[in-house]
Amino acid sequence: DTYKSIVASRAVKAGASMINDIWGLKQDPEIAQVAAETGVPIILMSNQRDTPYRDIMTEVISSLERSISLAVKAGVAWENIIIDPGIGFGKTLEQNLEIIRRLAELRVLGRPILLGTSRKSMIGMVLDLPPDQRLEGTAATIAIGIANGADMVRVHDVQQMVRVCQMSDSII
Q: Which of 102, 120, 134, 163 is catalytic?
């Protein structure tokens, strides 16, 4: 996770196999050139902190479209672009829950969708639990996310969430 091209460059040189830009190329567009030059996949997150939303999904899609455009213009291979709606980044509890419910709408962008809900504060708000007790809440968001189109998940509790993913994939 970074939003600085120098950090991304050094990380890839040190062995990182993927870049996760938490600002979707809007803070430091040079990150796209790092991804293009090194050939590593890049995750573009929708992060619009301090921005009021009218229709959360329309605005997340618009934000991700801009990020994808910046990546493509910088020479990032289409198959190396992954999108992330940015759960927990500048969004309210209600908006985060709505994004998960409406995740399939991101399919319009034609890119794999990564969902990162593991131990997030929204789970804590709903269940009134500290981060280390949010396993079941994470499992629910992952299962519903997969049902709604998530292709990848970012988690803390890998073994347990692999099982959730396998079961969800089998049903879906």
A: 120
Residues 47-78 have pLDDT tens digits of 977 777 889 999 999 999 999 999 999 999 99
Spell out the long-range contacts of 21-25 with Cβ–Cβ below 8 A and sequence spacing 24 or more: 21/45, 21/67, 22/47, 22/86, 22/89, 23/47, 24/63, 24/64, 24/66, 24/67, 24/70, 24/86, 25/67, 25/70, 25/71, 25/74
Residue 128 sits at φ, ψ, to 5 deg, of: 55, 55
154 tagged catalytic: yes
pTM, two decimals, is 0.95
Is 91 catalytic? The answer is no
- The tens digit of pLDDT for each residue in 97-109 reads 999 999 999 999 9
Q: Which of 4, 66, 102, 154 is the catalytic position?
A: 154
